[in-house]
Design brief:
Aminoglycoside 3'-phosphotransferase, Chain: A, domain 2; Butyryl-Coa Dehydrogenase, subunit A, domain 1; 4-stranded antiparallel sheet
Length: 739
């Protein structure tokens, strides 16, 4: 507390010079002057606990300074949405912002009061009864006429007080979307404002108040409703998020009481605003309109009072998928919503098959796509994307679930996107649905980071729209391509063109329209150049097979010959001899995505293993009852968790320290993920027996992908050598530092 006026003014002036602070002064709530020292006290405690509030800097009780007591807090940069419909954002982001708010509320209610030092902050137990009495008194004091619905709602609330009214936590008292500051670009809360109604009481009162927009009647003109707004999560979805974050069961039989109480409270406030307008001292310009909203609000409260808004246990299982690293919540329009470190990211597979298919637990949709390729095994149609995938693409793009891998487009970090990559790895074609498939992702990153404006216009923009496909040509059939200096494909300057001669293979992608190559200069430097696939001299030699399969579902892998192909000099990326520099920028995120997709693939394989082990019987008992199978299950789970955490650590390093510093961690995950995926899929195949080798299950296809991952983007042995070299360097550096 500041006691010296001169020191206080100096502090305020310093804050104003930095333009980082703002002041809070005494406010009037429900006709009472609310001292700001309570706000200062609670914000100081929350800030110390790491909860997102502006940092309170100083408090002054001397009213002579500016005419009232006040406190100064740090400015929080971000977005404030005054309209709860969140106009101007996509449906997917709207969902994410609301769910993020629900999680923030759960975080508030999970903080121990003793830890905050706020045990005596409020009156504690009996909060619900006090709230009903307080707002009933407030309403009756300002009522200008009888409103039976208000009296009925007040009576119902008093007769249906929760049995657990002794549950106590810190309560915000006015938790709604416009009292939150969101990050300028990310979907996370950076600050919660307006703590003048905060106290200690029942936490579900805040949740009920937050859920009110889902019930607001359209006839209340002074309050915006959610009618016709897409991407607004359902009550059950928000309850699922809140309860999961608090670690409590999602069945809340008394939540209808708290929602009804919130409507009663809001109706009483509206009545008070209208009463002040009659006296001529209301601050709201439309205060006279609030009188029309009191009865409709009360009627909605009565309607809510008579129904349950909780989740049953079966609904919980249907709508909540949990893993050790993240939560996935089923929503009406978004198939899965992912959360990490307060940032929400999304993935979707919404379609007519949703009732029978989830990426994590079912292969129905996969089987439909696989059947398509089997049906067209000897037809050119095999190289055409199945209609069902094209339909999903249209829906994903319309929902804004497009190009999520590219931070500049999605606003997601590599750590954020890692969770999406894991889930899409559970289904072989899922990345393609969201335009997040390799090698297009890496090629788009290259063009985004290093391409000229013309290259971006001609190539990047169509790739981002999903209009064209690309391939990446690096590996050559006649040399050991694990050592890039062996490459023989030549590039010669000829006026304002380059001439490319050589042969490449394993150019992943469908009927490619863009080709990335690493040509060689005579001085041993490498370059990267764009080659339209319809150029004269570009010849598709053959589609390659992986374990005998042409891998059409991934677009196949081609061997391509470049016979004196002339391309404009403007097609070279960044400049001559910059190929390795570009490659290092490309391969970090690409390897990360591969590894997280491998984690998702392994999760599916383990799930199939467990299902088979629980159903099949051999030698008088279920397969899982055999110790060797039980040990396989345990070891697979351990390996998956280890790889996931290692990969997320690499993603964090990539985000915070850059590609160069994260090289060792990326190399480690590249080795670990491929080995882990091979092991898990192999165990699953073994448990399935002969069926695991057949096309009846996706395991054979999954194994070919997992095994090829140990060669793609560099074989394990190259990465192991790099890891050893970097580890020795780091150890020697530490040893020198200790001397």
């Amino acid at each position: 507390m500041c006691t010296c006026a001169e020191d206080l003014l100096c502090s305020v002036l310093d804050c104003c010079k930095q333009a980082t602070c703002f002041c809070a002064v005494s406010s009037i709530v429900a006709g009472k002057v609310m001292p700001v020292d309570r706000e200062y006290t609670v914000q100081k405690a929350l800030f110390s606990a790491g909860f997102p509030v502006p940092q309170p800097l100083l408090y002054c009780s001397d009213a002579e300074i500016i005419g009232t007591e006040f406190y100064v807090m740090e400015h929080a940069e971000g977005r404030i949405f005054r309209d709860m419909r969140l106009p101007g954002v996509s449906a997917a982001e709207r969902t994410a912002l609301y769910v993020c708010a629900a999680e923030t509320l759960a975080k508030l209610h999970s903080i121990d009061l003793a830890t905050l030092g706020l045990v005596g902050y409020g009156k504690g137990a009996g909060y619900c009864k006090r709230q009903v009495l307080t707002w009933t008194k407030q309403y009756k004091a300002s009522a200008h006429k009888e409103i039976p619905a208000m009296d009925q709602l007040s009576d119902w609330l008093m007769k249906n007080l929760p049995l657990n009214d002794s549950d106590i936590s810190l309560v915000h008292g006015d938790f709604r979307i416009d009292n939150l500051i969101f990050h300028p670009t990310e979907t996370r809360v950076v600050a919660v404002l307006d703590w003048e109604l905060s106290t200690t009481g029942h936490p579900l009162a805040d949740l009920g108040y937050f859920l009110m927009p889902s019930y607001w009647p359209s006839e209340i003109s002074v309050i915006s409703t959610m009618g016709g707004v897409t991407g607004f999560p359902s009550v059950k979805d928000l309850i699922s998020v809140y309860c999961h974050c608090r670690g409590i069961p999602p069945s809340i039989p008394e939540l209808n009481f708290f929602v009804a109480l919130s409507f009663f409270k809001l109706a009483a406030i509206a009545q008070g605003v209208y009463a002040r307008s009659l006296l001529g001292n209301a601050s709201a310009p439309n205060a006279a309109e609030f009188g029309e909203s009191v009865e409709p609000l009360a009627k909605v409260g009565l309607d809510v009072a008579c129904r349950s808004v909780s989740l049953t246990h079966s609904q919980q299982l249907a709508s909540l998928q949990l893993s050790s690293s993240h939560a996935a919540v089923l929503l009406p329009d978004l198939f899965l919503l992912y959360r990490h470190n307060g940032t929400y990211i999304f993935c979707s597979a919404f379609n007519e098959h949703a009732s029978k298919y989830t990426i994590q637990s079912n292969c129905c949709l996969f089987q439909e796509v696989f059947d398509y390729y089997t049906k067209h095994e000897h037809s050119p149609q095999r190289w055409v994307t199945p209609p069902i995938i094209e339909d999903l693409k249209v829906k994903a793009r319309a929902a804004g679930l497009w190009n999520l891998f590219l931070p500049a487009v999605s606003g997601l970090s590599q750590l954020d996107y890692a969770h999406i990559a894991e889930e899409t790895g559970c289904c072989v074609f899922a990345p393609d649905v969201f335009n997040c498939q390799a090698p297009d992702t890496g090629n788009m990153e290259v063009l985004h980071m290093f391409g000229s404006e013309e290259q971006k216009r001609v190539w990047l923009e169509p790739l981002l729209r999903g209009d064209i496909k690309s391939c990446f040509c690096m590996t050559e059939p006649d040399v050991a391509s694990s050592d890039a200096t062996n490459m023989e494909c030549s590039l010669e300057k000829d006026g304002d063109h380059y001439i490319i001669t050589g042969r490449k293979w394993w150019s992943s992608g469908k009927c490619v329209c863009v080709c990335m190559v690493f040509p060689c200069f005579r001085h041993g430097q490498h370059s990267m150049i764009l080659v339209p696939m319809d150029m004269p001299g570009v010849k598709r030699i053959r589609p390659l097979t992986v374990f005998g399969q042409d891998d059409a579902v991934h677009g196949g892998h081609l061997e391509i010959a470049f016979e004196n192909v002339r391309v404009p000099a403007s097609n070279i990326i960044l400049g001559e001899g910059r190929g390795f520099e570009i490659a290092q920028g490309r391969l970090g995120p690409g390897r990360l995505h591969h590894c997280m997709r491998a984690v998702g693939l392994a999760e599916t394989a383990l799930q199939l293993l467990c299902q088979r082990a629980a159903k099949r019987q051999a030698f008088g008992k279920k397969l899982y009852q055999h110790e060797v199978v039980a040990h396989w299950i345990a070891e697979c789970r351990i390996s998956i968790e280890q790889t996931r955490l290692l990969t997320l650590s690499a993603a964090h390093a990539l985000d915070t320290q850059g590609n160069k510093v994260a090289r060792k961690q990326i190399a480690m995950i590249k080795v670990a993920a491929g080995r882990m995926a091979c092991k898990v899929v192999d165990c699953s195949i073994q448990v399935h027996g002969g069926a695991g080798l057949s096309s009846d299950f996706p395991l054979a296809h999954m194994y070919s992908y997992a095994r090829s991952l140990r060669l793609a983007d560099g074989p394990d042995e190259v990465h192991l050598s790099s890891i050893a070299g970097m580890e020795l360097r780091d150890q020697l550096k530490r040893a020198r530092a200790r001397l």
